[in-house]
Each structure stands twice: as C-alpha cells, then as structure tokens.
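Example with several molecule types.
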Amino acid sequence: MKKNLVILFIAGIILLTGSVVLAQDVVKFGVAEPMTGAMAVGGELCWRGYELALEQTPTVLGKKIELILVDNKSDKVESANAVSRLIERDGVVAVFVSYGSGMAIPGGEVANKAGIPLISGTATNPLVTQGKEYVFRACFIDPFQGQVMAQYAYETLGFRKSALLVDIAQDYSVGLANFYKRTFEQLGGKIVSDTKYNTGDQDFSAQLSQIIASGAEALFFPGYFGDVALIAIQGRELGFTGQYLGGDTLHNPVLIELAKDAAEGLICSTFFAEDQPATPESEKFAKLFREKYNLAPDAVSILCYDSYNLLVDAIERANSFDPVAIKNALATTKDFQGAGGSITIDENGDAIKPAVLVKIVNGDYKYEATVYP
Amino acid sequence: MTINLLLQNIANGLSLGSLYALIAIGYTMVYGILRLINFAHGEIFMLAPYFLYFGILIFHLPWWASTIVAIGLTAFTGMLSERIAYKPLRDAPRISALISAIGVSFFLQNLAVVVFSGIPKSVHRPIFFTKIYQFGEIRIQSTLFASIGVSIIFLSLLLYIIYQTKTGLAMRAISRDIETSRLMGVGVNRAISITFAIGSALAAVGGILWSLRFPQIFPTMGMIPGLKAFIAAVVGGIGSIPGAMLGGLILGMSEILFVTFLPALSGYRDAFVFFILIIILLVKPDGILGIKVQEKV
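Resulting structure tokens for the full complex:
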C-alpha cells in the first residue's frame, strides 16, 4: 500500500513537472469565432485563415503556437463569455475575434479590461477599436468603405439615385449603410428608397418592389452574403435592372455559387483581388489556399491569416510575451506586408490600407479599381 | 404609391402566403388530431430540400425522382421522430410532449449543421420554376401557381383521407378521445404514424416549393417559416385545415402590406407578425375558423 502511494506520488510529480515543461514550450492564441448559429459560415472561413497561418508559422520566439478555438455561437453575449474564458481559463497571450462587428465589440470590451491584446481581422465597424487601447484590426473601417462605394457610385459610375437595403440586426450593415448614405448625399445624389430587413429573412419581394418603383439606378446592400444572394435573385426576378453594390462581406465565392447569374455585375469593396495581387504575400497566400482547400481565396480567410501574422510579427518585435509589450508593438506596426495588402496601424488601432473594388464577371471576381485613403 | 406597386405587392403577398398556407396545413393537421404542437415541423421542412439536394448531387437522380425520394424520406423521418420522441410521452402531460418537440427541433437543426455544414447551398431549379409571368407591370414567379395548385391538390387529398377513409375515421376518433378509441379497437399507433407521415410529407412539399421560390438552403431555414406557419395555423384556428390555408394567406399578405405601407419599418415585419399572434390570442383565441371546444368536466 505504502509502495503504491510512493509510486503515485512520483507519477504525480512527473506529470506535474511534465506539464510545466510543456506549458513553457507552448504559447496559446485564443480564437473566438461563430462556429455555429447564423454566422457559422463566417467562422469557418476565419478558421481556414488561422489554420493556414499556423501551418506556415508554427512557432514564435522558439515556442510552439497553439490555437484555442471557442465558439461564440453568433451571439454577442456568448462572444464576451468566450473571450473571458480564453483569457481566464486558457491563459492566452492574445485573442482573435474577427467575424461580425457585433461580436467583436463585446469581445474587445472584455479583452481591453483584462489587458490582453485582441485583433479583429474583418470587423469593420468603428466601435470595435474606439477607446480600446488593446484592440486592433487588420482591415479598414466602414466610414472609409462606405465613402469609397458612394464616391465610386456617384463619380465613376455616374448614378444619381440610389436605394439601400439594410440588415437592421447587424451593426456592420447599419454602420456601413449610414456612411454610404452620408457621402452619397453630400456629393449631391439622392437616396430614393431606404428599406430594411433582418438577418435570415428569405422573402424580400415587398422591399424590392418598393425599390424598383422608386426608380433607383443602384442598390447598396451591405449584408451577410447568404441574404444578399437571395436579394440579388429576387431583385432580378422582380425586374430590377440597376447596379448592385455592396461591402466586403460580398467578396465570397459562395455568393456567386448561390446567386448565379443574378450576381453578375455586382461591385463590392474588399481587401484584395486575386488577379491583382497587392504584395508577394498575396500570391503566396492564394497559392497555399488553393492547394489546401481547393477553393478560391476569400477576403475573410485572408484577413484572419493576416491578423495571425500581425500578432506573430508584434511578438517578435517586442521579443516578449508580455501583453503590454505586445500591445505596444502592435500599435507601432508600420508597412507590415500582409497577404491582404500592406498594413499600418493608426492611433485608434485601425489598419490604414487601400480599398480594392472587385466586380463579378462571368462568375468570377475581377479587379475593378483601387482606392487609397 | 402607384396602383402598380400595390398590385405587385398583392401578388408578392399571395406568393408568400400560399407557401405559409402549405406549411401550416401540416402543422394544423398534427395538432388537430394529437393536440400536439409539433415545433419540429420547421426542421422537417428544412430536411426535405436537403434530401432533394443530395439525391441529385450524390445519387444523380433526375429532379422529379429525387423529389419523390425526398418526400418519402422526410415522411419517414417525421414518423421516426414521433416514435422516438413523442410516443413514450403519449400518456404524460401535454407539456412534456411540447418540450420534447422543441428538443427534436433543436436536435435536427444542430444535426443538420454538423452533417450538412452551415454554408448555404444553392438549389437546382428546373426551368419551369425560374419562369416569370408578366402581366403589364406586374411580375409573378411561377412558384405562385405551383404552390396554389399543390395546396389545392393536397387540401382535397387530405379532406378525402380524413373524411372518406377508414384511417381518417380513426384519426378523427383519436382527436376526440385517444383512450376511448383505443378501447374501441382503433389502431391508435398506426393512425398516429400515418398522421405524422402525412404531416411530414406536407412539410416536405412545402419545403421543396419554398426552396424553389427562395433558392438557398441552410440548416436554420425552417425556423422562421415554421414559426410563421404556426402563427398562420393559430390565426386560422388551430386544428382547422381550411383555417390554416386562410391563416397562411392572411399572414403572408399582411406581412407584405406592412412593408408596403411602412417601408421605413420593414425590418420589424416579424415583430409585426408576432404582434398579430398576440392580438389574435387575446381577442379570438380559437382563430378565424376555429371551433370552440367545450371542455368536459
């Protein structure tokens, strides 16, 4: 009996020290994304980006990187819970919350309070980083994106009457539409129809009939690509012949698959165009992504890939895993060569980078224009 | 507002309402016979277009054959869910079966996320269903005619089964008093299985037509249509089959007209629909065509 106890004791010690040694060799990055619920697709796209980045860069400062994924269930409250769990229970050095500004805002709130850096790859709503020194992002923000689209619609395409179809359940959609509206009206254009819907709605016939009757030349619909695919199809069925315009969520090959011919000609702002690589990294990413997933690269995956590398770069420059040092290094990022273009972090923690406009031509995204801030 | 816009929206309302009606019929039928609100109806509805999708994709069946197989499989799934989740609770308080139904609903939804993945899939539409008919300025999708036609066929078929066949007699007996029917030698289990099979087949037809009108399928696609169909059934008088049809049309129409007249509030149309439900429950809980049932003491 005594002998057994001794063995147990020794085994315990070995296990304990073993895990300590193991813990020292591993550095944990937290990922809180919507893996289930209405935005499960977005979470899946993000995960592909992180996964690929981990494969390419598995270590930092001699330590093995481990990604810990927690599902935020496409829910704002769950997102805050997921981030606190990652920080408190798993002891991560930094957190990624990319998909959905609605989820990145509460997540960022928690991380900022805990003093742990958080990077959002794709959340474009200004509130994500506002007043939070520990929160950064790898993408541009909606005021810029909305302005770019409105200017393009008014100046380059020459439209004077535009309609809006906004998802009132998404901070992203509401914010972006407001910035588009503001710029378009400032330029002298008119928003002839301002209609709304809710994420997951499937029938848009009433709103679209309204838009068609208003004589709009262009329809701006910043929303989830699944909903937008249905809008695009129903719009054409009801006889809308104008231009479709959207934001970065529409740069997703699944949209073309879903909407087919109805998506032809759609123009959206995004972060990169595969046929016009911004950096050597873009080409490398596109090649790796096609090899691994046999899919065309999308904007979400590329930005999540970039945010991972942004963090690794900051840790290397800080030469430390101390959250304050990482935060300071992230804040001073300059001309970082990401796959989705070069990134410089401004005083708010937002990325300064040009917007790329792409157009759907023959079932594929084609480069249209680059707009610099 | 121009007269054309109004007419177009009436057509839109009919088109949406006829789909709600079709789903609501299955809902109300199961309720009418078993007094069970089958909250999993929306998920059964979602399964059918998925079965159809995989029938074409994996087994390379022609569209019509895949449709038949999908309806059959969905009916079977409905029967199976009854056997597993509701039958053991038949003598339990009604609330237990209701909770079990909500469980089935969540289970099927999450199972679909795991098996089919959350990424929406596009739906193959035979040429007939992509056609648009134009009457002056008004454009109508062919699915409207299909759903009205199918609804009428199924309504008459259903009324025939319930009022003219022996199984229908058993169903009606069960709806009155399940215990007594059992004592009188009615094959209760068989009749209930058939009820679920028919109800689920109706959900399947509804789901397939829905996916032809809104060509995109995803695991949560059945949730809102399921709830709307439930509201339609309540508005029309739950348990009444013509009532469900009427309720569906009223609901679809009022949803569209709400957006037509108040475009600025168009994001709150679901809230408006649930508001109608509350009003109906307060003012006329039996619904428009509902029959007031006297509870025996």
